[in-house]
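Annex B.
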Amino acid sequence: MDAFVPVVPTQLLMLTGGALTVYGGLNLPTTVAVGALGVLAGDLACYLLGRYASGRRPVRSVGTGRARGIAGRLTRGLRRPGPMMILLCRFVPGGRMAACFAAGRSRYPVRHFLPAAGIAAGGWASYGGLVGHLGGAALTGSGWRMVVVAAVAAAGFALAGWALASVTARLNSTPAETPVD
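VTT domain-containing protein: predicted structure tokens.
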């Protein structure tokens, strides 16, 4: 569903499903399998939308500007549809929709798309289900642990966001020209 309505919190649903394997009697492998099949269906829908939106002719991406270091090589690699793009973008909020749509639009072969999307969906669902399960098991019967885990997670996400913003700002900045006297 989040393939068409991006505000649907699928990661939260996977975490909750994983936690319910501890509290609610759900089966962890079944929860992971259902989550993986659901996101794979959404990925395939985005792929098909891109494929039919492009018409008959394949669309080629055109590189722009000069790339810098590792970030530049990664960016160039993500412009071309392929297994690495599909796998990496699965874990980026909103990235999977763009990657799957781009793969369909560029006529990336479905025989290559489905295995990569399947592996990405399985990895994503396993990650979400296991984190929810382990978090639910660790927090059973202890309210203060839940508060500590939430605070550490919030601090970790804030630190990761700050680091990403600083690296991006550094890569995008150009040295200022200083006048020569």
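Confidence is low (pLDDT under 50) at residues 61-68, 70-75. The chain is about 70% helix and 0% strand. Further annotation is deferred to the next reporting cycle.
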